[in-house]
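Let us practice reading a record.
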Amino acid sequence: LEIGSTGEDVKALQVFLNTHGFMVASSGPGSSGNETTTFGGLTRAALAKFQAAKGITPAVGYFGPKTRAAISGI
């Protein structure tokens, strides 16, 4: 998943980030309970923070195999 991706996988990622301390947005679209199906800049920023916290490199906000494995282990 990356900028421009859409779908339920994006929404699930936003829910995960919001419920694990990596808020996509504090209010409005992307905030807890208002997750969207669009992967935009706010999702990328929150994902990059998660990646940095978990030691995933590069922490650039791209959801690939390394990040998927880290989330699966939680």
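A brief commentary: The CA atoms of residues 1 and 63 lie 5 Å apart.
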